[in-house]
Inverse folding.
């Protein structure tokens, strides 16, 4: 389907996940350093391993974009330890189910899918904005994507704005005190550290932007 000159289909989804995998691999050590400060020092390794597995699983796999996302989500759940596998796995499966069996999808369909992804993360993690988690990067991105599209922006411009919002949300986690997950055990000592889950989320949304802009 044409949205602002961009064809959004299974190829787009594969490109997004492959770009995300490359970015997470490149930033693996940085993510692990962030996690070492307030977590179990395994976030970079876990996300890298999970998305490498996703790319391998999708190699040669045909089907509608929704199926690719649900397959990617199931792969993350089965290969990634810690919280990130179930959370991102749930996010991608919810997004995939929302897209259904359509061969392509519109900008608004993407917004619906990411809304569903966020709902899944919030339900499973019981986290809201301000808890110093991936929700602090994902929620503003999803909200911004929807508002930009509602204001008449094309898909590419809306995704750029969503990526910027995710990065702002990521940076905003630094002064927060964690109230969810492993970092919450540190209490006030979690203040001053950027959340690794929000950071990997911003990387994944930046990968979505790049996969669309390179088409």
């Amino acid at each position: 389907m044409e949205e602002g000159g961009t064809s959004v289909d299974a190829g787009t989804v594969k490109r997004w996940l492959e770009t995300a995998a490359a970015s997470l691999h490149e930033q693996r050590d940085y993510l692990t350093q962030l996690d070492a400060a307030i977590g179990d020092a395994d976030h970079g390794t876990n996300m890298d391993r999970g998305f490498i597995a996703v790319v391998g699983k999708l190699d040669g796999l045909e089907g509608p974009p929704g199926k690719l996302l649900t397959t990617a989500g199931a792969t993350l759940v089965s290969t990634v330890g810690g919280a990130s596998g179930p959370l991102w796995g749930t996010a991608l499966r919810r997004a995939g189910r929302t897209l259904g069996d359509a061969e392509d999808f519109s900008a608004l369909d993407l917004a619906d899918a990411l809304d569903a992804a966020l709902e899944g993360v919030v339900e499973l993690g019981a986290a809201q904005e301000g808890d110093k988690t991936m929700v602090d990067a994902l929620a503003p991105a999803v909200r911004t994507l929807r508002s930009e599209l509602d204001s008449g922006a094309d898909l590419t411009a809306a995704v750029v704005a969503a990526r910027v919002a995710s990065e702002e949300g990521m940076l905003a986690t630094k002064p927060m005190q964690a109230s969810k997950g492993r970092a919450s055990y540190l209490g006030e000592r979690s203040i001053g550290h950027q959340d690794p889950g929000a950071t990997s989320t911003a990387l994944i949304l930046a990968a979505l932007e790049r996969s669309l802009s390179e088409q």
User: Anything to note?
Assistant: The mean pLDDT is 92. The chain has one domain: 2-213.
